[in-house]
Each structure stands twice: as structure tokens, then as C-alpha cells.
Amino acid sequence: MPNNSLPPITLSQDVEDLLSSGYTTDEWASIRAALATPPRTTFLRVNTLKCSRDEALLTAQRFVDEQCKTKNWLPMSVKIHPTLRDVLYIHVEGPLDVSPSVSEVMVDALCGNAVLRGADIFAAGVLAAESPMKAGDKVSVYVDLDRACLRGQSKKYTGKKAFLGNGVSLLGRDDLFTVAAADLKGRGIGILMTEPLYRSPSLSDLFSDGLSLQNFPSILVGHALNPQPGETILDMCAAPGGKTMHIATLMQNQGTLIALDRSAQKVTRLSKFLQSQNISSARAYTCDASSCVMSDPETQEYRTALENGTWKWPNSGSKLKKLPREGFDRILLDGPCSAMGQRPNFLPSLAPAILTSYPQYQRSLLHSAHRLLRPGGTLVYSTCTISTQENEGNVAYALRTFEDLELVDVSQRVGGKVGMDGVDGKGLSEVERRMCWRFPPGVACGTGLDGEELESIGFFFAVYRKRIEAGGRKGLFS
Ligand SMILES: C[S@@+](CC[C@H](N)C(=O)[O-])C[C@H]1O[C@@H](n2cnc3c(N)ncnc32)[C@H](O)[C@@H]1O
Questions:
Q1: Confidence (pLDDT) at 183
Q2: pLDDT of 69-95, one tens digit each?
Q3: b or e along 376-402 (b: 16 or more beta carbons within 10 Å of the residue's beta carbon)?
Q4: φ and ψ at 91, to 5 degrees?
Q5: How many alpha carbons lie under 13 Å from residue 276 in its C-beta half-sphere?
């Protein structure tokens, strides 16, 4: 195998049969191949509460110029997205023709995925390094594909591995593996990726300047939801909070944004994060969103308290059991999914039983979402997977189960349709399929400023509206 090609992802036959359902042989082959490689575009979302897009562009370009200089790369341009007003992007170069150097460093699959998307390597991310290795040495970086490399191993790893590029070690071998390594140099970077297989700047440090790394379809989801200042909005499965932060920004931090997650640990982090960003409109709660709807009398109590001005949401970061039925103007359901749109994806660990459990679980969340949404309200259902059972299958399920839900066409509002329509054969009519937003890995998710193809992770979303009943009655509570 040449040095610059990444190995295909490994899937058991059962899993492959489930995932390929709904695709032609050629479509599936192309999706499968793309899952082994990083997207060709890196996207940044501008926090418009912090800075304007033009200021962000200048900051990002300065940062990228500096990095290109340090790494001895040709200049790379940061560009403004032609249709989404808060998006910048950079073209990823690769695969490049890089030859491995002599000394070898091993990283795990998670770190390997990040390296291919432009990250340098934190000392703590290094699994093993060949001996001897001094600060300043050129090293070749490999990802462990057998999950068998021992931490701290000093001999060359003989298991299955893939080459990710060359870097320069900022620490000697011993320092890399000491507990205090993270404090030794800079921000804990152990290996600077100077000759990566895919060249994309490391951009996570731009966060404090108001720029977040976010995949394009995830940003599009925020715009498709179209949150407005003053509204009451629910983010049902919110952690780590990338989309929560975007929704709060689009609401201009005015209104009420309730962010739920089942994991208390994640909610603590999310609540602290929102506070650190001065997002006073949002509150994060530990809550099982699949069973969190108030009874009708409880909802009436909530509405009376709201009208009297006596309703108080509990403190952010705490537990919450119930939410008011038909209490939300807009709901985002970006729930747990098989994540088979993430790329690169070196070692997907998916058992068939887990894969088949997701659609059911997502349906239980859809039932809650439907009860919590007010008539006339908007629901966005999204996943980061190519599984048609979780995507088109569940869109069809919701349309057939909830008679008052209809799909809406948001293409005009978000600058035009990108990606592809929903697949056939999963219970959707042609018109309904046209209103699905499907982003198969390897297929362009739009066109850039200079006509170049933009590309991101695999993703899917659909936007519903809950109809107002005939006769103008808006629902149970109005
Ligand atoms: C795909 S992630 C959400 C990503 C998030 N929307 C973002 O953009 O940062 C799915 C999340 O759903 C949470 N989750 C799973 N089951 C849940 C449930 N029943 N209620 C609430 N959250 C749940 C998981 O803990 C996980 O953090």
C-alpha cells in the first residue's frame, strides 16, 4: 500500500448490510471509501455575539498565516462562505506525497482522526514512541489499528497501523510520558504535525477569539431551526453544546433556551461552558428527554405561573424532571445516533444489536418532541449518520405517526438546497424526500466562493412544522 493512502474502514458483514440498506452498490462503495478519509473542507462558525464575520476573518487569516510560517507551509486562505453569514472555511490539501521518517510515534484511533482533521498531537495523546527520541527530532506518526499498542512502548509497533504524516517532537521521549508532560511546552503539544498527510491548520485555539470548529451541516441545522430572539426553545440532546451555543447566538441571547442531556457530567460541563460565554438566556439540565412531558394539569399550572410572572426555571446545571406540553416554539432533536457520518472513522465499534437499537430510541425522543412542541412550532430532527433507518426511516415514522406534523421546505431561507434528497424505499414520497437534507460523505455540501466544491461529514436533517388545527385553535392550551 502506498504511504499516502488510508486503509478502508473495517465493518462486520452484519453491520455493513444494515448500513448499506437503501443505497445502490455504487453509492455505498463511495460512502464507505469516503468514511476512511477526512472531509476536504474545514469550517469555522463565527460567534457573532463576540465579533463580526469580517473581524473573525482577519483573526483567522492571521492565525493561519502564522501557523503556515511555523510549519513551513505555502500560505492557505481562509474564505467567507457564500451563503451562510456566520461561516468561514479553509480548503484541506491532501492526500500529500509524504514519505515516513525513521523514528516512529503511535497514537490511538481518536487522536488519529483528529490529526487527519488538522490537529497537532498533545503529549497525552501519544501512545508510544520509539527510543531514542529527543526534542526537535523528526518523527513519523502512525495510528494503531489493532488497539494493541502498549502505552509507553519503546520498540517499533508491529501491529496493523496507518501512516498519518510526519511531525517534530517538541519533547524528548521521557518527557512525553511523564505525568507533567502537558505542562511542559506551549499548550501541551507533544508533536507538531509539520508534514501531515492532509494539510489543514490546527484551529481549536481560535475559540477565545469567537471562532468554533463546527461541521457545515451542523451549522446549517442552527439556521434551519431559525431561532428568534424572545422565543422559548428546547435543545433536547444538547451536550457538548456546539448547536446550543449556535442557537443562543442566533437568538441574540434573548429568550429562553432549555438545553437537556441525560448525562449529569455533561450537563455540569455544558452549564459551566454557557456561563463562561455569558449566555444568560440558556439553562442546561440533566433530564431524560424521552420521558419528560408534564401532565395536562401540570402544564396548566406552568402556564398560569408564566402568565402571572411567577414561573422560575430551576438553576442551570441541576436536574429537571418535566417540561410543559406544547411549551416550546422550536425544538432541536439532535439525538444519540450511530455516528456513522463521522470521518475519518478508523475503528467504528458497532455491534448489529446497537445499530438496530438507535432508530427505536430516536423514536421515543420524537414522541416527546411532538408533545413538547406548540402548534405552529418548528422541529428539526438531525443525525450524524448515513444509516437510512435512523434518517429517512424515522422521518417517515414521524409523518405517519403524528398527523399534525408536516415537512417544511427551508431551502430559500438557508441560501439554497445543498447535499442530496432523502433516499427512496424508506417510506417517503418524492415530495417528502426532496425536503430531506442528506449529506453523504464524499458528496459536495455546496460550492465555495471560487466555485470549488465544499465537503463535510456525513449528516442528515429534516425540518417539521406542527400544524395549527382547523378553525384557528392552536392546540390544547390556546
Ligand atoms: C449527538 S450528541 C448531541 C450533540 C449536540 N447536539 C451538539 O451539537 O453538541 C447526543 C447527546 O444525547 C445525549 N442523550 C442520549 N440519550 C438522551 C436522552 N434520553 N435524553 C437527553 N439526552 C440524551 C447524549 O448524552 C449525548 O450527549
A1: 56
A2: 999 999 999 999 999 999 999 999 999
A3: ebbbbbbbbbbbbbbbbbbbbbbbeeb
A4: -75, 130
A5: 10
Q: CA angle, corner 188, sides to 185 and 191, nearest 5?
A: 85
| C-alpha span between 46 and 67 (Å, rounded) | 20
- Measured from CB, residues less than 6 Å from any atom of ligand 1 are 237-243, 260-263, 266, 288-290, 334-336
| Model confidence, pTM | 0.95
Please report, for the chain, the start and end positions of each structural domain, with discontinuous segments joined by +.
Answer: 40-92, 103-197, 215-466
What's the gap in Å between 248 CA and the centre of ligand 1?
A: 17
Q: Does the domain formed by 103-197 have CATH 3.40.50.1000?
A: no
Q: Of 407, 322, 327, nearest to 371 (Cα)?
A: 327
Residue 205 marked ligand-binding: no
Is 137 assigned to a binding site? no
Q: ipTM of the predicted structure?
A: 1.00
Residue 262 to residue 268: CA distance in whole angstroms: 11
Ligand 1 test: best mutation among 235, 247, 262, 285, most atoms within 8 Å of CB?
A: 262
End-to-end Cα distance, the chain: 66
CATH topology of domain 215-466: Rossmann fold (3.40.50)
